[in-house]
Amino acid sequence: MPHTIHLAALKLLECIGAPTREERKKAAENSRISAYQDSTTNSLSATAENFAAATQVSDTPDDTSKPSSLIVLAVFTLRKIVKHVRSSPQRREKWKKEIKDVNKSWGTDDSVLMLILDVQTGWSSTHQMLRRAIQFRTAITGYVTNEPELRECELSIAEWDTLILVTG
Question: What molecular function terms (GO) are annotated for this protein (predicted)?
Fold first, then answer.
């Protein structure tokens, strides 16, 4: 009985495209011969590249396409701001300084939290990103005002109101 189950499992693995023992050995030999980086940067066949391009799902629209609705535009703009803040240690320090300045002006001693960047596979990460952004609305506005690269990313009052409405 165990032998029959083993044969059935091997046949199932073969049907779903799992590599055979020989294919795994050959892949292991190839990985010892060539560097990992070389094997991962080899160009794909034209068919594979076309398929990848056709099926690629982007979590953000590219800069050439403008989002149509106010909420999509606001989330797109906020995502650009968050990526900018999180992109380098120097920008993170500027963000922390901005938070501390806002806390000082409000007379509070709230903790310094980083902005959350949403991810495509996290089902609630966009909501978390929006909630954290609303929490630090004043700091985001100050940060964007002081960063020349982000001047076009200033969120309008209507966009902030839309984000607040969406997050409930």
Answer: zinc ion binding
